[in-house]
Design brief:
By secondary structure, the protein is of the alpha/beta class. Helix content is 44%, strand content 11%. β2 (146-151), α6 (158-169) and β3 (175-181) form a beta-alpha-beta unit. α1 packs across α4, α3 (39-49) runs parallel beside α4 and α5 (121-138) runs parallel beside α6 (158-169). The longest helix has 25 residues, at 3-27. The two termini are 19 Å apart.
């Protein structure tokens, strides 16, 4: 990957992480851990991969994105704000009564393609979108890619595997699922709660093309999505190895931050760490480009 592009993506990912912390702190509730672990992937998708345009959010030819693990809405909201779908000031009203941004993605929010939150249902909706795109393409209409992010705890849900069978049956090669394998869910380690391992072998058995990537390395992310583009005749799943709470030292690999908001002191520390990282990245004033 071009060094300048990589740096810009790192800067954007850092800003998205700051928005996540801002929103969850303001709401005094939410899910920072799993939001921080997908920030780099969302950065790559929205700022270097997907065909989306905040000036034309309803473009029928746009790529679709479904956040199947909908409780990590702070990550999606912060990404959409950075992309320009709405002001970053909206993040401060997260989960407030009457506010635009509620606890799970809602389809009336600019840039959100599917309401989600009940685990397992998002990937089912994504399958429907992908099949619709294929049917439209046969009719000479709109054609687009569909991306969906699932949690590794979420894939303990049976509905995920029904959707996996569906996607394979209909050869949905325009569908890319990303499983965020940070190893932790609300009750502890996924292997202790209800182990979904071996994740790779399971998806292969269901007829998917499987790719593995480092969720915090943009070279690895780019290579994974480039490989996904070359696959035909079967759906693609990318298993991303990630760190829950990535970017905030006291949240990293700490299950207690699955669904807890930082207090004022913790908020200050988190924002200070992220600001320091941003300042280091922006030493050549790239933040303003």
């Amino acid at each position: 990957m071009d060094a300048n592009l990589k740096k810009q993506l790192k800067v954007t990912a850092c800003k998205i992480r700051m928005g996540i912390i801002e929103g969850v702190h303001s709401a005094k509730s939410g899910h920072p851990g799993g939001s921080l672990s997908i920030a780099d992937t969302l950065t790559y998708l929205y700022f270097n991969k997907m065909n989306v345009n905040p000036e034309n959010p309803d473009d029928p030819d746009r790529d679709r994105f479904v956040l199947s693990k909908g409780h990590t809405a702070p990550a999606l909201y912060s990404t959409l704000a950075q992309k320009g779908y709405f002001s970053t000031e909206e993040l401060k009203s997260l989960r407030h009564i009457g506010a635009l941004l509620q606890g799970h993605p809602c389809i009336q929010i600019p840039g959100v393609d599917m309401s989600s939150g009940s685990l397992g249902q998002g990937i089912s909706a994504a399958c429907g979108m992908a099949l619709s795109s294929k049917l439209d393409a046969k009719a000479g209409k709109h054609e687009y890619k569909v991306y969906t992010v699932l949690g590794d705890g979420e894939i303990e849900e049976g509905q995920v595997w029904e959707a996996a069978m569906f996607a394979s049956q209909y050869k949905l090669d325009n569908l890319v699922a990303i499983v965020d394998n940070n190893g932790l869910q609300i009750d502890g380690k996924i292997e202790d709660v209800m182990s979904p391992y071996p994740i790779v072998d399971k998806f292969k058995a269901f007829g998917w093309h499987v790719i593995e990537m480092n969720a915090h390395c943009f070279d690895s992310i780019e290579a994974a999505f480039d490989e996904a583009d070359k696959v035909t005749g079967q759906p693609v799943v990318i298993i991303q190895k990630s760190v829950k709470g990535k970017g905030v030292s006291f949240m990293e690999n700490n299950v207690s931050w699955h669904g807890a908001a930082p207090n004022d002191e913790q908020y200050a520390q988190a924002m200070s760490e992220l600001q320091t990282a941003l300042d280091e990245l922006c030493s050549d004033d790239c933040c303003n480009k």
